[in-house]
């Protein structure tokens, strides 16, 4: 039964990685923009949730959507003010710009919120574990699985079935032709970017309990976001989703069964998959 | 050409000489102390506590001792040893400090050690806790603690108090490995058995798999050492996984239950038994005054790092008193050796042989007092010398 507990923990961890990273998959894969500051938006969401719950006394479930909204707003403002000037620039410029943004975010949060680790006060209903036919199910992790599962479905539907989804795909594949067809490309990009940031913010709020929240969050977890997107391939949502699950389960199981090698399992998995499929699990050859 | 440059040279020489004169005139009545601490970055709480404690001490005792004015020059090394080294050098060479102090982490204390030796400037270590630090230079004195002091004590205590099987969870870096090594030695010597040994990576996102392993190995207790900050995450997940309900105790050196973080951990921490040199709940008059003054000044509880800083500045003051204000390195170190005093943590002294601190180690249990969590001391091992010295 331990095996199933480990599997459950791994799935929850993977789902969390997915929500944190799928915004990056959207900007990187769909908009072809390397945004290494993605984690900073996640951190923003985490701190917004923490301040609302701990200091303003909001219920946790009301603060979660606010974490999304706040990060999305910050994302929208920054996209209009800064990011859009870099869409046409080489990837190296984008990397340097966004990594600079990370350092500024780290310093700013350290100054405003202090460097100690922040915990979000959870409702009692989310604490502890219950026993399901011998499998230990953590309540909080179960909630993560439910929220992230629903989110993935919604995301997939939006991208594949809605008008906005098809506009976005058109805007990405050929911005000139798309604007010729009357699609407002900058607006589509701005919305998409803000949405990606909002997802990161929600992920940040959800992850505070498990990954810990401090000003170094964006630096500490940047590598995990990148691994998810690289392994999953960045041309769809299903790719990063399956990659997150695979990596989450692999990481948790590796740390449990081989604690001495544990931290390396996730990297080994990445290397093996990339040798086998250099564009990621579901990647297509580079779009441009 | 030569004659043309001469006036410039002369001017430069005069300027230099007058600067040197001014500096020496100043040095007559001022003793500068270079305080190097991590004020930003992951260890910032250490730096802030020490800085706070020193300011508090100077408010209480004035900034003059033995006819000298004490001036603190604070530098932030943001937990990077190469910064520490550069700052120590600047402080010694440019600012002519008589003492360097602080040092949040072991590599920082190491980095400054050769400079202390070379310049014959005392290095007062107020936080870093690896045993071998004081062996790196004859000018290093420590007022904090060593991990060996607390880990050996909790090892002996566990073996004597009905804990037979222990699973260990320690972070895989120098202090974690120190804690594990000294605990194991003493616990096994006392008849205990280690049933599971897990080292977690320093940048560890999720304790779940490690805790599940702890749970499945069915120990009597989990011995834990993780860096400050991760302690809260550990205790929360420990409770989430129901380890508290399955009767597995948490034991360890006291760093995990730092007063700074303890109350934020929530009730999950209740019952954890740790060995350490300081608790904000230490029941002495001296400590009650210290805690009250610190809380009044900074609105938070002092942790063990604050006490390390408070005693460090006290040591410097008393050494200057003893030398009558003579501030050269050899006189100060000679004065510091063997010094004894009553600290908020209890009676302490500086071992004249190793220049390391000798202090009581208390065994404490986390309990709720007046609605807040505290480490309540219930047993004392008196005058513990650092057991980790390689040179005896």
TrEMBL record, chain A:
The keyword Calcium does not apply. One of its GO terms (cellular component) is plasma membrane. The chain crosses the membrane at residues 6-26, 33-53, 59-83, 95-120, 140-160, 181-202, 222-249, 261-278. Keywords: Amino-acid transport, Cell membrane, Membrane, Transmembrane, Transmembrane helix, Transport. The keyword Transport applies. It is a multi-pass membrane protein. Belongs to the binding-protein-dependent transport system permease family. LivHM subfamily. This is ABC transporter permease.
Automatic annotation (TrEMBL), chain B:
The keyword Nucleotide-binding does not apply. The keyword Transport applies. It comes from the Bacteria. InterPro entries: BCAA_transport, Leu-bd, Peripla_BP_I. Residues 30-369 form the Leucine-binding protein domain. Residues 1-27 form the signal peptide. GO terms for biological process: amino acid transport. Keywords: Amino-acid transport, Signal, Transport. Belongs to the leucine-binding protein family. This is ABC transporter substrate-binding protein. It comes from Rhodopseudomonas palustris.
